[in-house]
Amino acid sequence: MRTVLGDVDPARLGTCDAHDHLFFHSPALPGQELTDPAAAAAELRAFAAAGGGSVVQWSPVGTGRRADALIRLSRRTGVQVIAATGLHQAAHTDPAVLDRVRGRLTELFVAELTEGIRAGDDPDAAPLPARAGLIKVAGDFHALAAHARASMTAAAEAHHATGAPIAVHHEAGTAAPEVLDLLCGRLGVPADRVVLGHLNRCPDLRMQRDVAASGAYLAFDGPSRAQQATDWRLLDTLTELAAAGHARQLLVGGDTTTAAARASTGGGPGMPFLLRVLRPRIEHALGAAVTADIFVANPARAYAVDWRR
Question: Which Gene3D superfamilies does this entry report, sorted A to Z (predicted)?
């Protein structure tokens, strides 16, 4: 497991928020940036106080991921942080960064996974003393446009060079079959190296069962202001998928993308909600063993890599 402080045994990951953001900014979300290190520290401390051990930050290149601050926060709070390389949708990526990295995606992804995240998201900059532990890419609404296909192709190439897992943003929960067809069918990425995000935003249980049959991991958002219409379906979805034999593929994360959604400095529910409120409800519905899979064992497998390869 590659954290910003170095490689650790996956067994030490502990209780995991499998998809969240400590730092994030997007041209498409002006005024809603996550840029405050003090607020991020407060959120991590609240998460740790609730029993949290690790957070996987899905903020990729060009979204203000702040690898330098992640190092300091992990040391000060004791929470292990896994950072991302990769590329989001063009609408969510700094245009200047897009210009710098275009045509060099595979090179950049591999370098950030093996050498260190590049300061200023500049492929020619010296590496920071923190390496990425996953590759984040994004699809489009019910489709994969040219930008998505280019970033996923580079992600697959970087995976084959390093073994790193690939985490995928699905716009409104759609296009998961198309993503699997491209990444796993055409580009040869093993399905168990792919994490499919946001699938609860499209509550199509038949589709969810179909993509789970591939062996990929399914990452569901915890309750959030942006996705509250899907909150009430989350427990039913997890219950149905576990009953269908996919309990060992389920992940849950908070996906906090705006300052207002933080628990410690905003209106919440934030990272600690996953453990204070959602985890007990999952345990009541699915039992202690499945809950331990979702929060501990599954993320340890999903994000584990033999970096000696």
Answer: Metal-dependent hydrolases (3.20.20.140)
